[in-house]
Design brief:
mainly beta; eight-stranded antiparallel beta sheet
Length: about 140
């Protein structure tokens, strides 16, 4: 019985550690990079209510067993070690770069497992296509639609 109790305690400890993993992300506006902790699935969605030119990007690790804690997504250049797919009217296609349109609103969602199951933050692009944080809308954490 003590053996089963020890196994149970170890399993609970591992589950608690997994639930408290940091899955946050941050935009560096100056360098135009997004730094993601424990990348699982990152989606960059265009606010398609503005126009019919909607598109979105889905970003995953190329190697799902990669244990690197931080991943960098370059918004003006190629990102290494990542699989990027773009979805638009023509469907899904692989791409090497995240190319954002100027003067648009975007939502970035990092979803996966753990305590913070879903982190959603709002952004906009300026006239040159640089991504900026939308300070008028609040980040949502641990929330599902």
């Amino acid at each position: 019985m003590k053996y089963l109790f020890r196994i149970f305690v170890c399993m609970m400890m591992f589950l608690l550690i997994a639930c408290t993993s940091d899955h946050s992300f941050k935009l560096d506006e100056k360098q135009q990079i997004i730094v993601v902790h424990n990348l699982l699935v990152l989606e960059i969605e265009f606010d398609s209510s503005q126009t019919d030119e909607g598109h979105s990007f889905i970003i995953l690790k190329e190697d799902p067993y990669d244990t690197k804690e931080l991943d960098t997504i370059r918004l003006q250049g190629q990102s290494t070690g990542l699989k990027i797919e773009k979805f638009d009217r023509s469907g899904y296609k692989k791409t090497q770069m995240v190319n954002l349109l100027p003067n648009r609103k975007y939502t970035i969602i990092h979803s996966g497992m753990g305590g913070r199951v879903r982190i959603q933050e709002y952004f906009w692009t300026d006239s040159t296509g640089n991504l900026r944080v939308d300070s008028t809308r609040k980040r949502k954490i641990g929330y599902r639609d």
